[in-house]
Automatic annotation (TrEMBL):
Its main location: membrane. Belongs to the tetraspanin (TM4SF) family. It comes from the Eukaryota. The chain crosses the membrane at residues 20-42, 62-84, 91-116, 221-246. Gene3D superfamilies: Tetraspanin. Pfam families: Tetraspanin. GO terms for cellular component: plasma membrane. It is found in: Membrane. This is Tetraspanin. It is a multi-pass membrane protein.
Length: 254
């Protein structure tokens, strides 16, 4: 009678672990979808700003998040199968994938943190150089488009101020047609509106585009880091639950 009671308790413990792992797996799958969505949104919706960055670390972090998010969603389906079938081989594979994803997100988090530390210095050194040397050049059409989009979206003009454009190769060239700033600096963009650099006509923002872009990138890095940490914490719980369920199934097989 006591032996039957012990076996019954073991069965209930296994069922309890299965339900816990099933619930975890659902939140894990949702977290993977969030990671994938943030990474994709960063590259697709905001890709216009990325060409003005000197380093590819921001882009690399986004790609790692996309890969990790896709792998999380695939692993989530495997986790459902592993819980339902109670196969030790499926649980072992599931645990290994959780560990791999955890390491991938750890790398992405380290990259994002390192890039966050040097973000301000990179923007100060590179953005002004991009505006003065590359904007409006025949071989830098992508950069020209990125700067125009940046100035319109953030309603700013110049790296630190609109005065930065005085030293631009483009503004000093005949192609500028007398513009003092690019047309994208104007509050209402029309052809040759950049000829008039008055505050009523162009954006005059304290700190220029550097401050705006730095704030935007910093928020993105923090968002990616927060989601990555949240999913990583879920993964630790999942690995513990997987080990417990694996142990219960192993004991019941004897």
């Amino acid at each position: 009678m006591n032996h039957f009671s012990k076996a019954e308790q073991d069965d209930w413990l296994t069922v309890y672990l299965k339900y816990l792992l099933f619930v975890f797996n659902f939140f894990f799958w949702v977290g993977g979808a969030a990671v994938l969505a943030v990474g994709t949104w960063t590259l697709v919706e905001k890709s216009g700003y990325l060409s003005v960055l000197a380093s590819s670390t921001f882009v690399t972090s986004a790609y790692i998040l996309i890969f990790a998010g896709a792998l999380v969603m695939i692993t989530g389906f495997l986790g459902f199968c592993a819980v339902l079938r109670e196969q030790k081989s499926c649980l072992s594979t599931y645990f290994c994938l959780l560990l791999v994803i955890f390491l991938i997100e750890l790398v992405a988090g380290v990259l994002a943190h390192l890039y966050y530390q040097k973000l301000s210095d990179e923007l100060k050194q590179h953005l002004n150089q991009t505006l003065t040397e590359n904007y409006g050049q025949p071989r830098a059409k992508e950069i020209t488009y990125s700067v125009d989009q940046l100035q319109q979206d953030f309603r700013c003009c110049g790296s630190n101020s609109s005065a930065d454009w005085e030293y631009s190769t483009y503004i000093q060239s005949p192609e500028a047609e007398g513009r003092r700033v690019p047309d994208s600096c104007c509050k209402t963009v029309v052809v040759l509106c950049g000829q008039r650099a008055h505050p009523s006509n162009i954006y005059k923002v304290e700190g220029g585009c550097i401050t705006k872009l730095e704030h935007f990138l910093a928020n993105h890095l923090l968002l990616m880091g927060a989601i990555g940490i949240g999913v990583a914490c879920l993964q630790i719980c999942g690995m513990v639950l997987t080990c417990c369920l694996y142990g219960r199934i192993q004991m019941q097989s004897y």
